[in-house]
Amino acid sequence: MWANNSVFTNEFRQNWRMLAIAFACLLFAFSAPLIALPFLFGSIMEEFGWTREQVTLLASAKYATGAVFSIITGRFIDVIGVRRTLIFVSTVGALAMVSFLWTPNLTVYYLSGILLGIAAPGTIVAVKVLISRTFHASQGTAMGMVMIGTSIGSIIFPIAITALIAAVGWRLAIATLSLGIWCITLPLLLFCCNEQSFGFSQKDVEGGTAQHHIAWSALGNLMLKGDFWLIALAVMMAGFVDQAIMQHQVLYLTIDLEMKATFVAGIVSAIGLVGIAGRIVVGTVFDKASSKGVSLMYLVLAVACLFALGLLNPYVLAAFIVFRAVGHSAVLLDTTVLTKHRFGLANIGVLLGIYTAMVNIGFALGPWVVARMYEVNGSYTAAFVLCAVVGVAAAAILMPVRPRYWLDMQARLREGGAS
After folding, report:
1. CATH superfamily of 5-418
2. What is this structure's pTM?
Protein backbone atom coordinates (compact mmCIF):
# COMPACT_ATOMS: atom_id res chain seq x y z
CA MET A 1 0.00 0.00 0.00
CA TRP A 2 2.91 2.37 0.63
CA ALA A 3 4.98 4.03 -2.03
CA ASN A 4 8.05 2.05 -1.00
CA ASN A 5 7.08 -0.61 1.49
CA SER A 6 10.59 -1.90 2.27
CA VAL A 7 11.95 1.60 2.86
CA PHE A 8 9.09 2.45 5.20
CA THR A 9 9.47 -0.87 7.04
CA ASN A 10 13.14 -0.21 7.72
CA GLU A 11 12.52 3.33 8.91
CA PHE A 12 9.55 2.22 11.01
CA ARG A 13 11.58 -0.54 12.71
CA GLN A 14 14.18 1.99 13.80
CA ASN A 15 11.82 4.78 14.84
CA TRP A 16 8.48 3.28 15.93
CA ARG A 17 8.79 4.83 19.42
CA MET A 18 8.82 8.30 17.89
CA LEU A 19 5.69 7.42 15.94
CA ALA A 20 3.94 6.23 19.10
CA ILE A 21 4.78 9.41 21.02
CA ALA A 22 3.74 11.64 18.12
CA PHE A 23 0.50 9.66 17.77
CA ALA A 24 -0.38 10.16 21.46
CA CYS A 25 0.35 13.89 21.25
CA LEU A 26 -1.92 14.35 18.25
CA LEU A 27 -4.70 12.17 19.68
CA PHE A 28 -5.02 13.79 23.11
CA ALA A 29 -3.22 17.15 23.09
CA PHE A 30 -4.19 18.24 19.58
CA SER A 31 -7.39 16.42 18.58
CA ALA A 32 -9.45 16.54 21.78
CA PRO A 33 -9.98 20.34 21.85
CA LEU A 34 -10.02 20.59 18.04
CA ILE A 35 -12.84 18.06 17.64
CA ALA A 36 -14.79 18.88 20.80
CA LEU A 37 -15.05 22.68 20.55
CA PRO A 38 -17.66 22.83 17.73
CA PHE A 39 -19.94 20.63 19.85
CA LEU A 40 -19.83 23.21 22.66
CA PHE A 41 -21.02 26.17 20.59
CA GLY A 42 -24.73 25.37 20.73
CA SER A 43 -24.72 24.95 24.54
CA ILE A 44 -22.69 28.14 24.98
CA MET A 45 -25.09 30.13 22.77
CA GLU A 46 -27.98 28.80 24.83
CA GLU A 47 -26.36 29.69 28.18
CA PHE A 48 -25.05 33.17 27.36
CA GLY A 49 -27.28 34.27 24.47
CA TRP A 50 -24.25 35.01 22.29
CA THR A 51 -24.52 35.09 18.48
CA ARG A 52 -23.07 32.47 16.16
CA GLU A 53 -20.34 34.90 15.17
CA GLN A 54 -19.39 35.66 18.79
CA VAL A 55 -19.23 31.99 19.75
CA THR A 56 -17.20 30.82 16.76
CA LEU A 57 -14.75 33.72 17.19
CA LEU A 58 -13.16 31.48 19.84
CA ALA A 59 -11.69 29.48 16.94
CA SER A 60 -10.44 32.68 15.31
CA ALA A 61 -8.81 33.78 18.58
CA LYS A 62 -7.20 30.36 18.86
CA TYR A 63 -5.81 30.31 15.36
CA ALA A 64 -4.77 33.97 15.26
CA THR A 65 -2.64 33.26 18.34
CA GLY A 66 -1.41 30.10 16.65
CA ALA A 67 -0.24 32.07 13.62
CA VAL A 68 2.16 34.04 15.83
CA PHE A 69 3.18 31.18 18.10
CA SER A 70 3.90 28.79 15.21
CA ILE A 71 6.90 30.89 14.14
CA ILE A 72 8.16 31.12 17.72
CA THR A 73 7.74 27.38 18.16
CA GLY A 74 9.75 26.57 15.06
CA ARG A 75 12.79 28.43 16.39
CA PHE A 76 12.11 27.18 19.93
CA ILE A 77 12.34 23.58 18.71
CA ASP A 78 15.58 24.21 16.89
CA VAL A 79 17.12 25.56 20.11
CA ILE A 80 15.80 23.36 22.96
CA GLY A 81 14.47 20.29 21.15
CA VAL A 82 11.20 18.57 20.42
CA ARG A 83 10.57 16.81 23.74
CA ARG A 84 10.66 19.91 25.97
CA THR A 85 8.49 21.77 23.50
CA LEU A 86 5.86 19.01 23.51
CA ILE A 87 5.80 18.91 27.32
CA PHE A 88 5.23 22.66 27.50
CA VAL A 89 2.52 22.96 24.86
CA SER A 90 0.67 19.84 26.06
CA THR A 91 0.49 21.28 29.58
CA VAL A 92 -0.80 24.62 28.28
CA GLY A 93 -3.47 22.83 26.24
CA ALA A 94 -4.68 20.80 29.21
CA LEU A 95 -4.88 23.93 31.38
CA ALA A 96 -6.85 25.72 28.64
CA MET A 97 -9.45 22.95 28.56
CA VAL A 98 -9.80 23.05 32.36
CA SER A 99 -10.15 26.86 32.29
CA PHE A 100 -13.60 26.58 30.65
CA LEU A 101 -14.92 25.54 34.07
CA TRP A 102 -14.78 29.19 35.13
CA THR A 103 -15.74 31.04 31.92
CA PRO A 104 -17.98 34.01 32.94
CA ASN A 105 -17.87 36.24 29.84
CA LEU A 106 -16.56 36.65 26.31
CA THR A 107 -13.20 38.05 27.42
CA VAL A 108 -12.28 35.00 29.49
CA TYR A 109 -13.79 32.76 26.81
CA TYR A 110 -11.46 34.21 24.18
CA LEU A 111 -8.49 34.02 26.59
CA SER A 112 -9.05 30.27 26.77
CA GLY A 113 -8.94 30.27 22.99
CA ILE A 114 -5.61 32.10 23.10
CA LEU A 115 -4.16 29.38 25.37
CA LEU A 116 -5.38 26.76 22.90
CA GLY A 117 -3.72 28.82 20.20
CA ILE A 118 -0.40 28.30 21.94
CA ALA A 119 -0.92 24.57 22.45
CA ALA A 120 -2.29 23.40 19.09
CA PRO A 121 0.29 24.83 16.67
CA GLY A 122 3.09 24.07 19.11
CA THR A 123 2.05 20.43 19.11
CA ILE A 124 1.66 20.11 15.36
CA VAL A 125 4.91 21.93 14.52
CA ALA A 126 6.86 19.78 16.99
CA VAL A 127 5.35 16.59 15.58
CA LYS A 128 6.09 17.69 12.02
CA VAL A 129 9.73 18.33 12.89
CA LEU A 130 9.94 15.00 14.74
CA ILE A 131 8.65 13.04 11.74
CA SER A 132 10.60 15.04 9.14
CA ARG A 133 13.89 14.38 10.90
CA THR A 134 13.12 10.72 11.53
CA PHE A 135 11.56 9.54 8.27
CA HIS A 136 12.94 10.47 4.88
CA ALA A 137 11.88 8.39 1.86
CA SER A 138 8.57 7.54 3.59
CA GLN A 139 7.95 10.88 5.28
CA GLY A 140 4.46 11.34 3.83
CA THR A 141 3.39 7.82 4.78
CA ALA A 142 4.80 8.18 8.31
CA MET A 143 3.09 11.53 8.82
CA GLY A 144 -0.11 10.02 7.48
CA MET A 145 0.12 7.25 10.08
CA VAL A 146 0.72 9.72 12.88
CA MET A 147 -2.20 11.84 11.70
CA ILE A 148 -4.43 8.81 12.16
CA GLY A 149 -4.39 10.02 15.77
CA THR A 150 -6.55 12.94 14.70
CA SER A 151 -8.84 10.58 12.77
CA ILE A 152 -9.30 8.33 15.79
CA GLY A 153 -9.96 11.45 17.82
CA SER A 154 -12.63 12.37 15.27
CA ILE A 155 -14.30 9.03 15.96
CA ILE A 156 -14.07 9.02 19.74
CA PHE A 157 -14.46 12.64 20.81
CA PRO A 158 -17.73 13.57 19.03
CA ILE A 159 -19.52 10.71 20.77
CA ALA A 160 -17.73 11.35 24.07
CA ILE A 161 -18.35 15.11 24.15
CA THR A 162 -22.02 14.71 23.14
CA ALA A 163 -22.59 12.20 25.94
CA LEU A 164 -20.66 14.28 28.47
CA ILE A 165 -22.54 17.49 27.62
CA ALA A 166 -25.84 15.68 28.13
CA ALA A 167 -24.64 14.19 31.43
CA VAL A 168 -22.59 16.95 33.11
CA GLY A 169 -22.86 20.10 30.97
CA TRP A 170 -20.44 21.66 28.50
CA ARG A 171 -17.98 23.06 31.07
CA LEU A 172 -17.18 19.81 32.85
CA ALA A 173 -17.37 17.93 29.55
CA ILE A 174 -14.47 19.77 27.93
CA ALA A 175 -12.48 19.74 31.18
CA THR A 176 -12.92 15.97 31.40
CA LEU A 177 -11.38 15.48 27.97
CA SER A 178 -8.14 17.00 29.28
CA LEU A 179 -7.57 13.79 31.27
CA GLY A 180 -6.06 12.19 28.18
CA ILE A 181 -3.26 14.76 28.28
CA TRP A 182 -2.72 14.57 32.05
CA CYS A 183 -2.83 10.77 32.24
CA ILE A 184 -1.32 9.60 28.94
CA THR A 185 0.48 12.24 26.86
CA LEU A 186 2.47 13.92 29.62
CA PRO A 187 3.51 10.66 31.37
CA LEU A 188 4.76 9.32 28.02
CA LEU A 189 6.84 12.45 27.44
CA LEU A 190 8.10 12.68 31.02
CA PHE A 191 8.78 9.05 31.93
CA CYS A 192 8.82 6.88 28.77
CA CYS A 193 11.44 8.75 26.80
CA ASN A 194 14.41 11.03 27.43
CA GLU A 195 16.47 13.63 25.62
CA GLN A 196 18.67 10.89 24.12
CA SER A 197 15.59 9.40 22.46
CA PHE A 198 15.35 12.62 20.46
CA GLY A 199 19.09 12.84 19.95
CA PHE A 200 18.76 12.65 16.17
CA SER A 201 17.02 16.02 16.10
CA GLN A 202 19.78 17.69 18.03
CA LYS A 203 22.31 16.16 15.65
CA ASP A 204 20.41 17.60 12.73
CA VAL A 205 20.45 21.04 14.31
CA GLU A 206 24.02 21.09 15.60
CA GLY A 207 25.79 18.77 13.19
CA GLY A 208 27.07 21.65 11.16
CA THR A 209 26.45 19.95 7.83
CA ALA A 210 25.34 22.16 4.99
CA GLN A 211 22.28 20.11 4.17
CA HIS A 212 20.86 20.41 7.71
CA HIS A 213 21.76 23.90 8.80
CA ILE A 214 21.82 27.19 6.94
CA ALA A 215 22.35 30.78 8.00
CA TRP A 216 19.47 33.15 8.55
CA SER A 217 20.63 35.06 5.46
CA ALA A 218 20.12 31.91 3.38
CA LEU A 219 16.64 31.53 4.89
CA GLY A 220 15.95 35.08 3.83
CA ASN A 221 17.03 34.20 0.30
CA LEU A 222 14.55 31.31 0.28
CA MET A 223 11.79 33.75 1.18
CA LEU A 224 12.61 35.74 -1.96
CA LYS A 225 11.74 32.76 -4.15
CA GLY A 226 8.31 32.53 -5.75
CA ASP A 227 7.81 28.94 -4.59
CA PHE A 228 8.08 30.00 -0.96
CA TRP A 229 5.10 32.34 -1.25
CA LEU A 230 3.08 30.06 -3.53
CA ILE A 231 3.23 27.35 -0.87
CA ALA A 232 2.45 29.86 1.89
CA LEU A 233 -0.63 31.16 0.07
CA ALA A 234 -1.88 27.71 -0.91
CA VAL A 235 -1.67 26.21 2.60
CA MET A 236 -3.33 29.32 4.06
CA MET A 237 -6.25 29.00 1.62
CA ALA A 238 -6.61 25.28 2.31
CA GLY A 239 -6.66 26.05 6.04
CA PHE A 240 -9.37 28.66 5.43
CA VAL A 241 -11.59 26.05 3.76
CA ASP A 242 -10.90 23.28 6.26
CA GLN A 243 -11.75 25.14 9.45
CA ALA A 244 -14.56 27.16 7.88
CA ILE A 245 -16.38 23.85 7.40
CA MET A 246 -15.18 22.16 10.58
CA GLN A 247 -16.09 24.92 13.02
CA HIS A 248 -19.57 25.36 11.54
CA GLN A 249 -20.60 21.84 10.57
CA VAL A 250 -22.12 20.95 13.95
CA LEU A 251 -24.14 24.18 14.13
CA TYR A 252 -25.20 23.72 10.50
CA LEU A 253 -26.33 20.13 11.00
CA THR A 254 -28.05 20.57 14.36
CA ILE A 255 -29.66 24.01 14.00
CA ASP A 256 -30.08 24.66 10.27
CA LEU A 257 -30.78 21.08 9.16
CA GLU A 258 -32.42 20.14 12.51
CA MET A 259 -30.59 16.84 12.91
CA LYS A 260 -30.39 15.17 16.33
CA ALA A 261 -27.20 15.74 18.30
CA THR A 262 -26.43 12.02 18.48
CA PHE A 263 -26.86 11.66 14.72
CA VAL A 264 -24.55 14.62 14.11
CA ALA A 265 -21.97 13.07 16.41
CA GLY A 266 -22.26 9.91 14.33
CA ILE A 267 -21.64 11.87 11.11
CA VAL A 268 -18.50 13.51 12.51
CA SER A 269 -17.32 10.15 13.85
CA ALA A 270 -17.92 8.60 10.42
CA ILE A 271 -15.69 11.29 8.90
CA GLY A 272 -13.02 10.31 11.41
CA LEU A 273 -13.43 6.62 10.60
CA VAL A 274 -13.01 7.17 6.86
CA GLY A 275 -10.13 9.49 7.70
CA ILE A 276 -8.12 6.60 9.14
CA ALA A 277 -7.74 5.13 5.66
CA GLY A 278 -7.68 8.66 4.26
CA ARG A 279 -4.53 9.59 6.17
CA ILE A 280 -2.61 6.64 4.72
CA VAL A 281 -4.00 7.16 1.21
CA VAL A 282 -3.18 10.87 1.28
CA GLY A 283 0.30 10.21 2.69
CA THR A 284 0.95 7.69 -0.09
CA VAL A 285 -0.30 10.12 -2.75
CA PHE A 286 2.02 12.79 -1.38
CA ASP A 287 4.99 10.38 -1.38
CA LYS A 288 4.29 9.48 -5.03
CA ALA A 289 3.19 12.82 -6.48
CA SER A 290 4.46 15.49 -4.03
CA SER A 291 3.03 18.97 -4.72
CA LYS A 292 0.75 17.77 -7.53
CA GLY A 293 -0.73 15.26 -5.10
CA VAL A 294 -1.40 18.09 -2.65
CA SER A 295 -3.21 20.01 -5.41
CA LEU A 296 -5.39 16.97 -6.07
CA MET A 297 -6.36 16.73 -2.39
CA TYR A 298 -7.24 20.43 -2.32
CA LEU A 299 -9.72 19.76 -5.13
CA VAL A 300 -11.24 16.98 -3.02
CA LEU A 301 -11.56 19.46 -0.15
CA ALA A 302 -13.34 21.90 -2.46
CA VAL A 303 -15.81 19.30 -3.74
CA ALA A 304 -16.74 18.44 -0.15
CA CYS A 305 -17.89 22.05 0.32
CA LEU A 306 -20.34 21.68 -2.55
CA PHE A 307 -21.66 18.39 -1.19
CA ALA A 308 -22.34 20.22 2.10
CA LEU A 309 -25.18 22.05 0.34
CA GLY A 310 -27.27 18.89 -0.02
CA LEU A 311 -26.78 16.87 3.15
CA LEU A 312 -30.47 16.02 3.60
CA ASN A 313 -30.03 13.60 0.70
CA PRO A 314 -28.48 10.39 2.13
CA TYR A 315 -26.34 9.76 -0.97
CA VAL A 316 -24.95 13.28 -0.90
CA LEU A 317 -24.34 12.92 2.84
CA ALA A 318 -22.34 9.73 2.23
CA ALA A 319 -20.30 11.45 -0.49
CA PHE A 320 -19.70 14.43 1.82
CA ILE A 321 -18.37 12.14 4.56
CA VAL A 322 -15.87 10.51 2.20
CA PHE A 323 -14.70 13.69 0.45
CA ARG A 324 -14.57 15.66 3.69
CA ALA A 325 -12.53 12.91 5.40
CA VAL A 326 -10.01 12.66 2.57
CA GLY A 327 -9.74 16.42 2.03
CA HIS A 328 -9.34 17.10 5.74
CA SER A 329 -6.60 14.44 5.86
CA ALA A 330 -4.49 16.58 3.53
CA VAL A 331 -4.52 19.67 5.76
CA LEU A 332 -1.55 19.88 8.17
CA LEU A 333 0.08 16.93 6.38
CA ASP A 334 0.46 19.23 3.36
CA THR A 335 2.83 21.68 5.04
CA THR A 336 5.13 18.89 6.25
CA VAL A 337 5.48 17.37 2.80
CA LEU A 338 5.63 20.60 0.80
CA THR A 339 8.32 22.09 3.07
CA LYS A 340 10.68 19.14 2.99
CA HIS A 341 10.02 18.21 -0.64
CA ARG A 342 10.84 21.74 -1.79
CA PHE A 343 13.50 22.94 0.67
CA GLY A 344 14.91 19.81 2.36
CA LEU A 345 15.91 19.69 6.02
CA ALA A 346 17.66 23.04 6.20
CA ASN A 347 16.15 25.08 9.07
CA ILE A 348 13.06 22.91 8.81
CA GLY A 349 11.83 23.92 12.27
CA VAL A 350 11.67 27.57 11.31
CA LEU A 351 10.21 26.85 7.87
CA LEU A 352 7.50 24.60 9.30
CA GLY A 353 6.77 27.27 11.89
CA ILE A 354 6.29 29.88 9.16
CA TYR A 355 4.04 27.65 7.08
CA THR A 356 2.04 26.51 10.09
CA ALA A 357 1.56 30.19 10.90
CA MET A 358 0.14 30.70 7.41
CA VAL A 359 -2.20 27.75 7.91
CA ASN A 360 -3.35 29.23 11.20
CA ILE A 361 -4.11 32.54 9.50
CA GLY A 362 -6.40 30.58 7.20
CA PHE A 363 -7.83 28.71 10.19
CA ALA A 364 -8.58 32.03 11.90
CA LEU A 365 -10.17 33.69 8.87
CA GLY A 366 -12.32 30.77 7.68
CA PRO A 367 -14.69 30.39 10.65
CA TRP A 368 -15.09 34.17 11.05
CA VAL A 369 -15.78 34.87 7.35
CA VAL A 370 -18.37 32.08 7.20
CA ALA A 371 -20.01 33.31 10.42
CA ARG A 372 -20.16 36.87 9.06
CA MET A 373 -21.65 35.67 5.78
CA TYR A 374 -24.23 33.64 7.71
CA GLU A 375 -25.24 36.66 9.79
CA VAL A 376 -25.69 38.70 6.60
CA ASN A 377 -27.39 36.08 4.42
CA GLY A 378 -29.15 33.91 6.99
CA SER A 379 -27.77 30.72 5.40
CA TYR A 380 -24.53 28.92 4.61
CA THR A 381 -25.08 28.59 0.85
CA ALA A 382 -22.93 31.50 -0.33
CA ALA A 383 -20.26 30.72 2.28
CA PHE A 384 -19.90 27.08 1.20
CA VAL A 385 -19.66 28.10 -2.47
CA LEU A 386 -16.94 30.58 -1.53
CA CYS A 387 -15.06 27.81 0.29
CA ALA A 388 -15.21 25.62 -2.82
CA VAL A 389 -13.80 28.42 -4.98
CA VAL A 390 -10.98 29.06 -2.50
CA GLY A 391 -10.12 25.33 -2.47
CA VAL A 392 -9.87 25.22 -6.27
CA ALA A 393 -7.70 28.35 -6.25
CA ALA A 394 -5.35 26.77 -3.68
CA ALA A 395 -4.94 23.72 -5.93
CA ALA A 396 -4.11 25.93 -8.93
CA ILE A 397 -1.57 28.01 -7.02
CA LEU A 398 0.54 24.93 -6.20
CA MET A 399 0.84 23.68 -9.77
CA PRO A 400 3.99 25.71 -10.68
CA VAL A 401 5.87 24.56 -7.53
CA ARG A 402 8.80 22.27 -8.34
CA PRO A 403 9.69 19.93 -5.39
CA ARG A 404 13.45 19.95 -5.96
CA TYR A 405 14.55 18.05 -2.83
CA TRP A 406 11.96 15.33 -3.46
CA LEU A 407 12.99 14.97 -7.10
CA ASP A 408 16.64 14.60 -6.09
CA MET A 409 15.69 12.04 -3.45
CA GLN A 410 13.67 10.04 -5.99
CA ALA A 411 16.63 10.07 -8.38
CA ARG A 412 18.95 8.75 -5.66
CA LEU A 413 16.47 5.98 -4.79
CA ARG A 414 16.28 4.94 -8.46
CA GLU A 415 20.04 4.89 -8.73
CA GLY A 416 20.29 2.82 -5.57
CA GLY A 417 17.68 0.37 -6.86
CA ALA A 418 19.45 0.08 -10.20
CA SER A 419 22.74 -0.71 -8.54
Report:
1. MFS general substrate transporter like domains (1.20.1250.20)
2. 0.85
